[in-house]
Structure formats: structure tokens, C-alpha cells
Amino acid sequence: MSFILEARDVSKVYQMGSTTVAALDHVSVTVNAGEFAAIQGTSGSGKSTLLNVLGGLDHPTAGEILFDSKPLAPLSKKAMARYRRNSVGMIFQGFNLIPTMSAEENVSLALAFAGVRGSQRRKRAQELLDRVGLADRLTHRPTELSGGEQQRVAIARALANRPRVLLADEPTGNLDSTRAHELLTLLRAMVATDALTIIMVTHDHELAQTFADRIILMKDGAVVKKDEG
Amino acid sequence: MSFLDILYLALRNLRQAKLRAVLTTMGVIVGVAVIVTMVSFGLGLQQNMLARFKALDLFNEMSVFGKSLSTLASGLDRGRQDADSGGDRRGPRLRPDKAPTRILDDAAIAEIAKIPGVAYVEPSIGFPVFVRANGHVQTQYVGGATVPNASSRFKDFVGGQMISSPDADEAVVNERFTREFGFARPEDAVGKTIEFLTPLDEQKGQARESKNEEVPSGFFGLPLDDQESAEAKAGNLAAHSFRIAGVLNTELKEGAGQGGMRGLFPGAGIYVPLKTARQWIIDHRGPMSQVALALARESGALSSSGLEGYDSAVVRVTNPVVLTEVRKRLTELGFGSFSIVDQLDQIRTVFLIIDSVLGLLGGISLLVASFGIANTMIMSILERTREIGIMKAIGAEDREIKLIFFVEAAVLGLTGGVIGTLFAWGIDGIANRAAYRFILKPQGASFIDFFSIPPYLWLGAILFALVVSIVAALYPATRAARIDPVKALRHD
């Protein structure tokens, strides 16, 4: 069986003055296609670092990441940008929308980087926002949207270029529990309908257990328990 | 990402910090305006000066030099320039570019006249003489003139006209001559007689000598008997009389050439036909010249009855463009030449230095502006670190991030360049009108454009502003592209 994403013996070491801190310590994780996996751990457990490494935003100090059985390591900076653009999508706790752009513009930006032009870009952005239930919020700026709505814009943006994997870093961290449930229900539905693979980092065990197929528990930069679901 | 998208993002970013963008652009505007104003002033200065030269026929005339008598006498290929006193030329001492190897005689003049592009060629010849007219005696410088004459020197007559034929005992004088000889009005001199004075015995001996030994009868088509008859003898002096055919207007409109000099031709107060002038020089040789002639004949540089040629001639070309071509041909024929264009190169160099210094001053202000641009860009990066991180996270390439910043800087530079040029154009216009109104007009002078903004200046200035801006953005753009997205996303 092939995995869509795999971390093989990955370490990430930061140099902090004279001491070295290992954010990731020989971590090996595999994720199947069409799976909703949760990485759970307390803050400082290295779960966000693992997600950044999987998303191609950060490079491991040792070990390798394989996407679709192909290692990312030999890719050029340009190819890494392309990987982030087309193969994976990311959402964050703080939404990370560009505050001066409307919902539609935020989604369009991701399409623009992929080279989608004019009317096609507009159409696709509207489609995506419609899918996350924001068809009537196209021209709203992030500040004019609620937290839940902002995160949906972020999801629409992350999925703009049809990635196979969505990486979510504490997506519900800034939402109340009602909104959090709504959002994760949406993501869960996407896994079912679009064969999307989701890896979600969270510290909330209850949410992880409710929505994820499987929980990977991390502590101090290492995987302590893989709950094979 | 297409360039249009990048341009859109860049403009959007600039719009978000309007005041900062405007202030940064102001810096560029001032820099470009200073450069264009200063250099346009330098160029205008140069243009006005060259236009004056052109009006004086200095660009389409040159002097041609043949081997001088003193060179022939000493048997050298090259004469010492400072001792080259074969003729009694007056006016500026013009130096040929190359030592001539040929004698500039009538045959040579005819040959030069046939060179393509030559409008006319006229030997420069002249001598000083005591002149008596209207009861006054003064030394005057007499020049020889080809008759009929095609040059612009003999176009503007106050009264009378040009000498009627090459053999006529007629002269043309200038307006100043008439004043110096006490004529009430310049026109009064027309038809009057002037006399060139020589000592009686010298005149006799010289004339006889030249008649019997040197000059074949009818030499240069000048019947010597006629000359004899034209000479009225009085006391110990002999005199050769000429009728004043016309009076030239001395005053040049452009105000240059105090001595009535126009083009390269040495000015003279009196002009007589060329042949007459040449014969006069041959007949009234000074001792030095006689020795030189004898030596030249002895050494074989001249045949036993041969004579030296003209020292120089003025060659006018049909078009200044062919001047260099004609000069090359003249060198091939063995003549030296002089053209103001040689000096012009030096003048151009001086102006180039002036323009460079002026441009440099402007360049410094643009340099200051470039620091402003760099500063603005860096500020912008600090503000937009998170945004850059987001862009990278959703798949922006380093190259694209860099390009956004370059385009931002280019927009600032281009806008500043265009507005700066317009400013400079306005400043030039206002300064020019002010100068005319308060300086030129009170003096009765006509309007002069002090500034010159040729297309290469304003296009160059805009391009320069653009390049400077992009260079200023080099560091900020590279820094923006290098931002670590993980840190940037944590940043707030």
C-alpha cells in the first residue's frame, strides 16, 4: 500500500545560541490517501514543525519527506514552491488571510500564482467560496468576516489549485466550539466527497477523536503513540 | 503568475502606503528635474555657441596650406612653424594639421576646385601698404579677391558693387576704411581713387628686374605696360591707383568678428583683384623673401624662373558633412589643412565636462532619492513580512516575490522620472522667459532659448531614474525573497 505523505526518520534541530533544541526527533509518520489524520500534542511537542516540514515550508535537518512515494529533498526552491502551490494546501490557526484583500481576491491570489487567468480565475474563486458556504461574502474583507468565515476563506484558498492533501494547523484554535464543529464537519465532508487527505494538528483531544480517522500523539518532538484506525 | 498580476500587486501595495509612495517619488522628481534642468542648460549653451559659429560660415570652410617659401628655401620637408613667414598674412595664425608637401600654385587651386564637394576655393593673399586717399595716408592691409567672387564676404555692399573684372584696376573697401579716410558717408567713397605708395627707386628697379629677368612678359595675364601707365609718379614716391568700385558693410549682424572677419578668411580693409595682389607681392618682395626665393631656386626646389605658391587658400564645401572627406583628399594631394572643426572637438570636450559636472550634481540628488527608495522598500518589507510569508505558503516563487518589489520600485522611478522631466521642462520655460524679460529685453536683444532638452536627455533621465530605482530595490527585493515563511507566519 502506498502512502500519499510519509515522514521517514525526520529530525529538525534548531540552534539557539549555544544550545541545540530538537523540535523533531527521529519522527516517522505515514498518511494514507483519503484519510483524515490528527496530530495531537501539547504546545512545544513539535506537531506544528512536523506539519511545516510536511507542507514544504520548512526543511528537515535529517530524514526525508515523501509525497506520493517521491522524496522532496532533491527539489529546487522553485519546485518546492510548485509543491506548496499544487500538491498541498495549508490553513492556519490565525487564518493568514491578506487583510487588504477581499475574500475573492484572497482565493484569486493562489490561483494567480498558479497562472490561472482572468475570467476563469474569477469563476473558480467564486466556485470555491460557494463550496465553503460563502457565496454571499465575496467582496468582504477579512475584518468584515467572522472567525469561522475567515477560516472557510482560508480553506477555499488552500484548495484553489486542487491539492490532494490539506494541512491544517490548529484550524479551530480561534473559534468557539460551535464554529469549530461546523468547520470540522465541512472538512470531514470534503474527505468523503473529494477523496481529500487531511492532516490536522490540534491540541484538542475531543475534536480529534470526534472527526479524525486516526490520532498521532506527539510529545517532546517524538511520536509517542500511533492510533492505527 | 503573469506580469500583469505582478504589476497589479505592486500598484496595490503602493496604493496602500500612498503618502510614503508620494514622498519617495518626490525625491526622484527633484533628482530628475535637477539633472534635466542642469544638463539642458549646458546643452543650450553649447547649442547657442555652435549656432553662432555656423552663422559665421566656420563649419563649411577650411584653410588649405601649401609649401611655404621659407620651407622651400631651407630645403626641409617641414618648415618650422614659427618661422613660416612666407606671406604677410594677418589674422589668426592657423596651423595646418599636416606639413604640406606641395606648392599651392594656380594649377593646384584648379585641382582643389575639382574635388567633389568643394563649392569654391579662393587663395588667401594679402599685404600691408601705405595708402593715400581723400587726402589721408595710412597703412592698410590689402587682400586679394577672386573676381567674380562666390563667397559670402562680397555680398553685402553699402554702396557700389564688386570689382568688375579680374584685370580691372579697381578695389573694394570696407565701411571702416571710409571712416578712417574721412569720407562723410560710406557711399561717398565709391568712384574715388586710392593710391598704393612705394619708393620710387625700388619701384623702378623692381619693375625692371621683374620685367627683364624673372617675369615673362604678360605673366599672369597682366600686361606690365598697363601697370606702368597706371602709376602716377610724385616726388620720390610711386603710386598705383585704383578706383573704388564698392564699399562693403563691415558690421556683422551677429556681433562677432570685430575685424570684419567672416569665415576663415583674414579680413582686410581693401580688396584688389587676386592677380594684382599676387603681382604686387612678387614685385615688392622684402629682402628676406628675396633671399628665400634665391635659395629655393639654387637648391632646385623651384625652377630658375619658378615662383612660390600661395601660402594658403580658403576652401568652402557645399555641405559641412563632406568637410572631413574633402580634407582627406587634400592630405592625399599633399596639402595641409586647418578647420575650426578641430577646435570644435576641443570645444565639445569642454562642454562635455561642463555637462558631466552639471549632470553629476543632478546625479547626486538622484542618488539621495535612491536611498529614499531603498528605505521605502525596506519599510514595506518589514510591514509586509507576514504577507510575503502567506504568499510563499500558497506557492509564490522567490522570483515572483522579488519581481513584485522590483516593479514597485520601477513604478516609483518611472513616475518620478516622467514628472521630474515635466518639472524640468517647466522650470526651463519659466527661467527662459524670466531671462528674456529681465535681462535680454531691456538690452534690446532678441529671444534666445537658453535651454535645450533633446529627446535623448529626457529619455535618458527617465531611464536613469528607472535604473537607479531598480538598483535601489536590489537589496530589499532579495531580502524579501529570502524571508523564511515559517518565521513570517509566526510574525505579527
Largest Cβ-defined interface: A-B, 30 and 23 residues
Strand arrangement, major sheet of chain A: 6-7-8-3-9-10
Level of helix content of chain B?
Answer: 40-55%
Mean pLDDT of chain B: 80
Fill in the keyword field for this structure:
heterodimer, A: 229 residues, alpha/beta, 6-stranded mixed beta sheet, 4-stranded antiparallel beta sheet, 7 helices, 10 strands, B: 492 residues, alpha+beta, 2 domains, 6-stranded mixed barrel, elongated
Describe the secondary-structure layout.
The complex is a heterodimer of chains A (about 230) and B (about 500).
Chain A (H helix, E strand, L loop, with lengths): L4 E12 L2 E13 L4 E6 L5 H8 L7 E6 L2 E2 L5 H10 L1 E4 L11 H11 L4 H14 L15 H12 L6 E5 L7 H18 L2 E6 L2 H7 L2 E6 L2 E6 L2
Parallel strand pairs in A: 3-8, 3-9, 6-7, 7-8
Antiparallel strand pairs in A: 1-2, 1-4, 4-5, 9-10
Chain B lengths: L2 H14 L1 H38 L5 E5 L3 H6 L31 H8 L4 E7 L1 E8 L2 E10 L11 E4 L9 E5 H6 L12 E7 H15 L9 H7 E4 L2 E12 L21 E4 H10 L3 H13 L12 E6 L5 H11 L2 E4 H44 L1 H9 L4 H43 L14 H18 L1 H8 L3 H6 L2
Parallel strand pairs in B: 4-10, 6-9
Antiparallel strand pairs in B: 1-11, 1-12, 2-11, 3-4, 3-7, 5-9, 6-10, 7-9, 8-9
Helix pairs in contact in B: 1-13, 2-11, 2-13, 2-14, 11-12, 11-14, 11-15, 13-14, 13-15
